[in-house]
Every structure is written in structure tokens, then in C-alpha cells.
């Protein structure tokens, strides 16, 4: 809305007086100025007309009747809260009970009620049966259990025995790995070098340039007649040297178990 | 509407656990709260749920009501308004989805309200016609922004004075008046467009 001055009234002042004017509480000189501004200012005149019409529409709206169940629902939901609140705040005087009765009431009775259920008895029986079968299969006898020593020295002794057994087990496993690695090495060295040649050719089957393969070791000038100061061994399959002439080196990785 | 002393006594009785006093409060204010909720939320189901929530909250916070700070009806309306704002925020996402599904009805070029009314000329009965007009105005009211809607509801439907509305909305009286003016004008524009389409 433009903030113009018409008949001594600005548009924002008109906006503030509009509600009062529609309520009929505006009178005297202020009402005259208000009406004069409404007639001279087009925007404010339209606003007055629209606000009056809108007020008329709204006044035509009648109150709706709430559903009949609303009050009942409200009372049901709130009186529920009320009951809980009263229970929470009202101290209930408890009769004096001994600690034995308290333990019996709070712990033993619920436990006994659970135990008495047939489902629990059946589960317990099955568990006992499974345990006894397992112990029998494992060769554990009741006399073994009786001979368990619970002195600290005996417990420490048992601990070290168990640790030594575990270490031995893994050391044995290491020996197996070593033997396996040695067998693999022997097998690899006994394989003729000729068998590996086609495989090498297969690796380069996509090479369509018909150029001789470049060497892996090269110096900066790319010439063969220059001195090669250092070179790695090419391996038996590349230069056709008999594989049996080469030393066999087997590498075994040891893993330490603590 | 209320005698301060009588209401203060009712509240005291409620706090003391008098169920009859609470029932009296519910009987007195349920209609008013339901109408505010219905006009703001738009549907009867939402209004029922919100009215119940208002009373539950009212009951839980009844001890915080201080008669020296304002009228009981203002306190009740403030609770209602706060819950309506929460409800509006919660359902904002749903409304956005709805508006994307349907036409952009808030836009000026969108489908007018007249097209949402089945047939304006069919029922000759004046009461039916009046009900349809009320429904049209109710729908137009739902299209106002929440700030303008709550202001015109409290003023034109609940007959609260500007000072009370300012206390409920926590804005100055000048802002209240301005919102009421704009709300009324916007509603008239919406309805003029609607009936221009019909005529």
C-alpha cells in the first residue's frame, strides 16, 4: 500500500483505523478523515470494501455443533490421566512385612510359578539330557569333576599346561606348513621348462606388432652393446636355461602365535 | 463469558481432584475449542483430535493457570492456538504433497473454489444453499495463510477483543488489526473470484 497523505491521513494510519471503523467505534473528526481518505485513495478504498465484504462473509458463518461423543471422549481421556495422577501422588500405607516375606513375595514366588510351568520343566529336562549325553560322548566322568583342584597354584598350573598345549598345536601346524611349502618347491622345480613356454607365448597373443619383445632390463641409451652395470636374473623360462641348474630357494613365512 | 471468581473456583476444585468441576469446564469450553480447531484445521476429524489434545494438555497444566495474568478463556485459547501451530507444522509436509498431487490451488490461475463445489444451481432449498455458501467460505478460510486465518477466526468467529488476541498470538495490537484487515480482504478476494466464476 502506498504511504500517501490524503486529507491529513497516511495509508498506514488508515490501515490501523480500518478495524475500528468496521467495528463502528470510530467517530468524530477521525471518522471524517478516514472516510475522506477512503474516497480519495483508490488502494485504501478497495481495501475498505474488501475488508468489509470479508467480515460480512465471516459473520455469516455459524458455529458448528461438536460431535455428541466429544465430551465423553475428552472425559475418558482426561479422567484416565486423573486416575494415574492420583495413584502416583497418594501414599499407600503398606502393612509391615519381614525381609524374608519380602524376598519370598518378590523373588521366590514368581520363580516358583515359572518353574511349575510344564514348558519350563520340559526345557529343563531336555537341557539336562543334552548335557549328560555331551559329557558322556566327551568321556567326562563324575569322578573327573570331583578331582578338580581349585587352589591358586593348581589353577596357574592348569593355565600354563593349556597354554603349552595350544603352542604345541600351532607349532605342529607350522611344521605341516613347512613340509607343504618344501613339497610345492620340489614339484615346481621338477616341472620341465618347456611346459611354461607356451604359457609365455599366450601372454603375448594380443601383440600384433610382430616386433621382438623388449627386455625388461634396459639402460638409458637402449643399446645392447653398452655396459649393463646391474641386471636381475631372467629366470629359466625366458632364456632357455635348464631349470635344474638353478638353485631352489623356498621361502616360508612364520607366524608367531602368542 | 466468564466470571473470574467462578472460573478460579472451578479451577481450584479441579486441581483438588473434583471430577464434577472438570466436567463443568469441559462442558463449558468444548464447543468453543472445537469450533476454533474446526475452522483452523478444516476437517471434523482433525478438530475432534485437536480438541481432545487441548483438554488433555489443559488438564495436565491446570496448575500453571494464574488468574492474575489473564482470563481463563485467553489461557485456554492460547493452549489451543499453540497446539494448532504444532499441528500445522506437523501436517505441512502432507499438505505440500497434496498440493503437488492436485492443482496449485493457492495460485491465482489455479482451479477456483467454484469448481470444487458440485453444482451451485441444483438445490433450490435456501437452507441447502446457505450450507453450501458456508462450506465455500470455510474452504476459502482454509486457503488463507495461518497467521491471517487465526487472526480472523479469533476476531470474527470467536468475538475476542484485540487485546486478548494480541495476548494469545503474542504480537502487538497493531499487528493484530493489520492481520485481521488483510485476512478479511484476502477472503473477500477469494470468494469474489469464486462467485464470479459461478455467476
Shape label of chain A: elongated
Q: How many strand units of chain A?
A: 2
Rg of chain A (CA only): 51 Å
The tally of helices of chain A reads 10
CATH first level of the largest domain in chain B: Mainly Alpha
CATH architecture of the largest domain in chain B: Orthogonal Bundle
What is the terminal separation of chain A in angstroms?
86 Å
Mean pLDDT score of chain B, rounded?
84
The radius of gyration over CA of chain B amounts to: 19 Å
Biggest sheet descriptor of chain A: 2 strands, antiparallel
Enter the CATH topology name of the largest domain in chain B. Answer: Rna Polymerase Sigma Factor, Chain: A
How far apart are the first and last residues' alpha carbons of chain B, in Å? Answer: 41 Å
Strand content of chain A: under 5%
Strand content bin of chain B: under 5%
Sequence stretches where pLDDT stays below 50 over 5 or more residues of chain A? 81-93, 214-232, 234-241
Give a structural overview:
The complex is a heterodimer of chains A (258) and B (199). Chain A is mainly alpha-helical and 258 residues long. Chain A is built from 10 helices and 2 strands, in the order ββαααααααααα. Among the domains of chain A are: 5-59, no CATH class; 111-141; 149-197 and 242-258. Helix content of chain A is 62%, strand content 2%. Chain A has a two-stranded antiparallel sheet. In chain A, a hairpin with a 2-residue loop joins strand 1 and strand 2 (9-10). Residues 81-93, 214-232 and 234-241 of chain A have low confidence and may be disordered. In chain B, 74% of the residues lie in helices and 0% in strands. Chain B contains 10 helices and no strands. Chain B has helices at residues 4-15, 19-41, 44-60, 72-90, 92-101, 113-116, 126-142, 146-157, 162-169, 173-198. In chain B, helix 2 (19-41) packs across helix 4, helix 3 crosses helix 4 and helix 9 (162-169) crosses helix 10. The radius of gyration of chain B is 19 Å and the shape is globular. Mean pLDDT of chain B is 84; it is low at 101-112. Classes of the chains: A mainly alpha (258), B mainly alpha (199). Chains A and B meet through helix 1, helix 3 and helix 4 of A and helix 2, helix 3, helix 7, helix 8 and helix 10 of B.
